[in-house]
């Protein structure tokens, strides 16, 4: 265990230094602008960009509780998450753990590949820090909610609301919002049209996450979990 801890500390130091060097080498004020342009272009091709004010606050909170609890306080990266991921990677002997924040997921989706390599992870960390410094948190959240892939061909919560529930995202119920918030982890597996049982289990995980961070109490979570879902019929 001592050897693992030493390796963990060394690895984290190397990640920190390498990320810093990468930031210095690629820093550009154009990156945040390019990010916004690409997300808006993608949104235009998938039903249009949805403003954060038109996305239910419940959905915003559900996503944050599930994907990045420190979103409004971190600088684009989660130090504890990186350490946790490094520990798992060291124990497994390969890159297996993500540990990504909302900002990291956003920059990866727009600028990088899904390939699990150290150079790609370093780029992801560096880009997330740059974007976090340049853009307000609410804008980052809005960009993510407009580009995240949610399965069944849906990019962004606006298109997902139409595909799964045949309604605008503004009119989703808390139960339906919790379904969407659970999709980024595994969109195909938790597709509520094809795999309702798995989707409901994931919905409950989302609601429990909201309870654990104080967004809901357990009674409210149970009431929401029992609420009906007005899904589009498969086929």
Automatic annotation (TrEMBL):
Gene Ontology biological-process entries: cell wall organization; peptidoglycan biosynthetic process; proteolysis; regulation of cell shape
Keywords assigned: Carboxypeptidase, Cell shape, Cell wall biogenesis/degradation, Glycosyltransferase, Hydrolase, Multifunctional enzyme, Peptidoglycan synthesis, Protease, Transferase
Record Gene3D superfamilies: Biosynthetic peptidoglycan transglycosylase-like
Reactions catalysed: Preferential cleavage: (Ac)2-L-Lys-D-Ala-|-D-Ala. Also transpeptidation of peptidyl-alanyl moieties that are N-acyl substituents of D-alanine; [GlcNAc-(1->4)-Mur2Ac(oyl-L-Ala-gamma-D-Glu-L-Lys-D-Ala-D-Ala)](n)-di-trans,octa-cis-undecaprenyl diphosphate + beta-D-GlcNAc-(1->4)-Mur2Ac(oyl-L-Ala-gamma-D-Glu-L-Lys-D-Ala-D-Ala)-di-trans,octa-cis-undecaprenyl diphosphate = [GlcNAc-(1->4)-Mur2Ac(oyl-L-Ala-gamma-D-Glu-L-Lys-D-Ala-D-Ala)](n+1)-di-trans,octa-cis-undecaprenyl diphosphate + di-trans,octa-cis-undecaprenyl diphosphate + H(+)
UniProt entry tagged with the keyword Hydrolase: yes
Spans traversing the lipid bilayer: none
Domain Glycosyl transferase family: 44-210
GO molecular function: peptidoglycan glycosyltransferase activity; serine-type D-Ala-D-Ala carboxypeptidase activity
Protein's UniProt keywords contain Iron: no
Coiled-coil segments on the chain, per record: none
Family to which the UniProt record says this protein belongs: In the N-terminal section; belongs to the glycosyltransferase 51 family. In the C-terminal section; belongs to the transpeptidase family.
UniProt-recorded name of the protein: Glycosyl transferase family 51 domain-containing protein
Source organism per UniProt: Sulfoacidibacillus thermotolerans (Acidibacillus sulfuroxidans)
